Amino acid sequence: MTSPNTVWQGAGRRIHMQEVGTRDGLQMEQAFVSTEDKIALVNALSNAGLSKIEVTSFTSPTAIPALRDAEIVMREITRRPGTVYSALVPNVRGAERAIEARTDELNLVMSASETHNIANLRMTREQSFASLAQVVATAQAAKVAVNISLSCVFGCPMEGDVAPAEVLGWVQRFTDLGVRGVTLCDTTGMAYPTQVAQLTAAARARWPGVDFTLHFHNTRGMGLANVLAAIDAGADRFDASLGGLGGCPYAPGASGNVCSEEIVHALQLMGYDTGVDLGALVAAAQRLPALIGHDIPSQIAKAGPRLALHPVPADFEAIRTRALAR
After folding, report:
1. Which residues of 221-257 are buried (b: 16+ CB within 10 A; e: fewer)?
2. Which long-range contacts (CB under 8 A, 24 or more apart) does 103-106 make?
3. Nearest residue to 256 (alpha-carbon basis) of 22, 28, 88
């Protein structure tokens, strides 16, 4: 008999679902989603009960034109009490813009891999850290929360494995600055469950006062397995993307982030409390194809939840009558 203390029995344990599709997903899309549609999408996600929504990115409009309306979107969304509204910021100027737009939390990004950091951010890790330290100071002066997202902690597509000690060393440097939110990112879908469990357990044991988030991609089909491995190691915060949108330019052929509605669906069936209205989340995902102009990876948006039943065939009674007459 399965013990109620295992990962397979949620027993009402709270898992915080954090939506990144409106930033991590939409920034990858060729079609520009209108400002009004972005606002409506964030509002729908708020109404679904997500713990955190990464609304947008305060980067240069020329770098990410898909999110060039960041200020308007952040200012005009309807804010639900209990939901944290976050945004990615690359530098002090981005932080100032985000703070002016009343962003609840600034999400900063650098890579645990030197090669990936240079390729992706055009800076060495030390240069990134020096720049982000200034952003942390800016946020702290404004009394705005900070989260650092460390990319490629489970592997770099150009270097291969990244040593756990290297990852934990960067966590230490940011916690020394007073950062109390850290996301461990599987940027290109290289993570596997054993590795996830080990790194998650090590990080949580060393920094019990830090809110650790796990950020997985489903590139190699291990997204849900990695989520469960992290939960088994004590994690309770996860990034996910509506419809499974997203990807990475340094992982050719990669699929997107783990899908919000698929993870919520699985965890709720297992007895976890996600605080999310699954029906509202699926309805939001089903709006995406019309907004972005193509199909989405989400299986739940297509098939519906497990008990989304279908009518019997129109001639069912005749079929049954013939069967009983045999």
Report:
1. ebbbebbbbbbbbebbbbbbbbbbbbbbebbeebbbb
2. 103/55, 103/58, 103/74, 103/144, 104/144, 104/145, 105/52, 105/144, 105/145, 105/146, 105/147, 105/181, 106/135, 106/139, 106/144, 106/145, 106/146, 106/147
3. 28
| Pairwise CA distance, residues 130 & 253, whole Å | 33
Q: What are phi and psi of 259, to 5 degrees?
A: -85, 125
Q: Does the annotation count 248 as an active-site position?
A: yes
pLDDT digits (tens, 9 = 90+) for 114-169: 999 999 999 999 999 999 999 999 999 999 999 999 999 999 999 999 999 999 99
Confidence of residue 19 (pLDDT cuts 50, 70, 90): very high
Rounded distance between C-alpha atoms, residue 303 and residue 289, angstroms: 15
Print burial letters for 49-63: b (CB count within 10 Å at least 16), e (below 16): bbbbbbbbbbbeeee
CA dihedral 135, 141, 146, 150 (to 10 degrees): 30
The distance in angstroms from the start CA to the end CA of the chain is 42
Catalytic one of 152, 156, 185, 248: 248
* CB 228, CB 214: distance < 8 Å: no
pTM, rounded to two decimals: 0.95
The amino acid sitting at 299 is Q
Neighbours of 148 (CB within 10 A): 24
Closest alpha carbon to 210 in 233, 187, 237: 237
